[in-house]
Batch of 2 targets.
Target 1
Amino acid sequence: MTQSTSRVFRIAAIPADGVGHEVVAAGRQVLDAIAADSRQSLEFQWQEFPWGSEYYEQTGRMMAEDGLEQLKDFDAIYFGAVGWANVPDHISLWGLRLTICQGFDQWANVRPVSFLPGIVSPLRKADDTDLDWVVVRENTEGEYAGFGGRNFGGRVDLGEIATQSAVFTEVGCERIIRFAFELARTRTRKKVSSVTKSNAQQYGMVLWDDVFKRVAQEYPDVEIESVLVDAMAAKFVLRPEELSVVVASNLNADILSDLGSALAGSLGLAASANLNPERRFPSMFEPVHGSAPDIAGQGICNPVGAIGSAALMLEHFGLHDEAKTIQRAIETTCAQGVLTRDVGGTASTEDVTAALISHLSD
Ligand SMILES: NC(=O)c1ccc[n+]([C@@H]2O[C@H](COP(=O)([O-])OP(=O)(O)OC[C@H]3O[C@@H](n4cnc5c(N)ncnc54)[C@H](O)[C@@H]3O)[C@@H](O)[C@H]2O)c1
């Protein structure tokens, strides 16, 4: 560790539902071990919030009414996953995660797709090809803008009617596309792949394409391509070595990043950062996966996605060495075969977390 002055970071922990509790606990243990190792140059102060589906059961709300007010002065939010059988999914997601992402203008969702040693990918190419790309997801508008309506009357033969509109603003497109170009400039392969479905969706996604072409002119050093989302799904599987930064709208990037983490071996591996790049509000760090009700409470979920998200949080704090320390410990733990069962092992969540902590000081 190279840190010399004492720095304190206040983090709001929101485990929420299901395996969210287990993976947030694992990530906290890792960060506390990093702080303990720092010879008091670093301190993480945690405050845990009980929000989620159980809180809804008791209060009729997914989070406190003044929840954003309570969160706004934290340095970051560390989130588990939301969703449980007692609350319809659209209510739990909108009532907590989307309220935070949209309320705090966390417009850039960064989702690295990392292929780890010791983990078998379903992708044959992963055996002998260096694969490493990042999905950059527009995180505040697009298909998740919440625009639409249901149950319009008067159309007898059609039964109920619902509309769900996507919202694309020029500012929203430009800032996420520019973010992708800036990120590409920091990577070995300087390339941005823009993903839309502008052949079928001729308004919002054509605006996105136009903005992409305009912004690209300012980055002549960065390779570009525009790919339709269906073709990009195929490319993830067939030519993933051509990818570096993939930028897409809210829904398309959500789907593509799940495909990416499945190709890397498991949904449980994927980390993510919901960033407010201007730092006017706290950013939120969470694994890509959901609350995994099928395995929740059994102590067997994979904590790597959540721990990788904690590393992204440290990057955001400017603690680059400490973030790298966590990444290396993840790689060593996987390479040594300490794996949960979603990636072919028999280790528990606790075993993986303990092994990883033991490698922080390697
Ligand atoms: N960011 C979020 O909070 C978020 C994201 C996706 C889904 N959800 C919610 O989660 C609930 C369940 O959704 P789902 O089943 O579609 O998705 P999911 O990600 O919870 O689970 C999909 C599959 O992946 C496995 N999985 C997920 N995380 C894992 C981990 N850490 N270790 C090992 N295996 C893991 C599960 O066991 C399951 O088989 C729903 O209520 C949904 O709305 C929330």
Target 2
Amino acid sequence: MGQHIVILGGGTGGTLTANRLRRMLPATSVAITVVDENDEHLYQPGLLFVPFGLAHAEDLVRPRHRQLHAGIDFVQSAVDHVDVAADRVHLQGGATLDYDVLVVASGSTLLPEQTEGLTGPGWGEKVFTFYDLPGARALETALAGFDGGRLVVNVVDMPIKCPVAPLEFCFLADWYFQERGIRDRVEITYATPLDGAFTKPVASRALGGMLRSKGVTTVTEFNTGEVDGAGGKLIGYDGREVPFDLAVVVPLHGGAAFVGRSPGLGDELNFVPSDEHTLQSHARPNVFAIGDAASLPISKAGSVTHFEGEVLCENVRRFLRGEPLDAGYDGHANCFIETGFSKALLIDFNYDTEPLPGHFPTRVGLPLLRESHLNHLGKLMFQWFYWHTLLPGRDIPGVGSAMPHSGKREPAVTEAMR
Ligand SMILES: Cc1cc2nc3c(=O)[nH]c(=O)nc-3n(C[C@H](O)[C@H](O)[C@H](O)COP(=O)(O)OP(=O)(O)OC[C@H]3O[C@@H](n4cnc5c(N)ncnc54)[C@H](O)[C@@H]3O)c2cc1C
């Protein structure tokens, strides 16, 4: 009898895993099924550009099933829960899928209703998010009509997808209001639960310096307890208040709700605790997790998902053959950070090495932790790579799963940090 791999979620991780595994394993003996609740694959990094009129929402979405190669079954249905003890997925509506290996690739879910007042009065009028498509679209209209006042960008709590995206929003807002000639009428504030601009010290100093140089005020260690849309203020748990005329909020994130309905699978946030090097879940040996769905000490990002894919697929193959797993994933993450004026910064890091200055992927290449036009072009090119290289499960030439060390240098005091 053949073997069956079931992949829950057909986003970045589910799609690249399915396509990669389809190439690695014979279709005659291993069936692959991808389950997703809808058929619209959204290029999420593009959401950043929509509010500023730099991307059109309709260009970011493609049919999900079309990204899956021949020989992969696509089931459009919501997952209700997984019975990990019985190796069985229960879909909403009652159908079931039995599996030999399960890959949880169900991403992260926005939970705006978990913050008091966030979706109350003012939501969609002066309180927005750009983390989903309707929100990004609505914010485009709101920004176009904003002629001055206090703009606050707020991260409610970590973890969030792409932790640099709210910083990019601040940088682009600075650019956008300069372009419109009203920058002097707009106060931009970044309110973050972190003690600096980013989680890792060298990058945090560099990015904090950039926020200052662009006239963005940073409010650190701010844990949003309430959003008072009518009164126009964020209220922290410690009683501090941040007033606004327009708030751009990145809501709390959790894993998919079905993870919480699947005994033994997830943690208290519904993410799936997994081995940080093999990506095998702690729930059961035949359950793996990729991308945002996994609880790992690394950013939730498409690049992370892509780099995990190589090791995860190899381990699924090994598991099916009864071989020892490869503990090769090193936590590699790589992010372009758009800084406005057609420039961007690049950071590259892993579990052990924080983002450092230098060049990527070798001594010659894109500048790290430094603004450049080349990095901006890289950011724009990423969309093409996403549809044509990442999702099909191919490798990016010259960029492997493991983080490259050559080209990185321990920082003296870099220009950006001054
Ligand atoms: C504004 C923004 C900017 C970003 N910028 C970048 C960037 O510049 N670089 C970068 O690397 N990353 C970026 N990201 C992050 C990146 O998009 C995600 O980390 C990546 O898509 C994660 O892939 P995933 O497969 O884990 O989850 P997803 O791609 O989100 O896929 C999860 C899938 O699971 C499905 N699903 C969930 N629950 C169920 C259910 N119950 N039943 C059936 N299906 C279900 C969903 O429909 C979805 O299709 C950004 C994200 C945002 C929001």
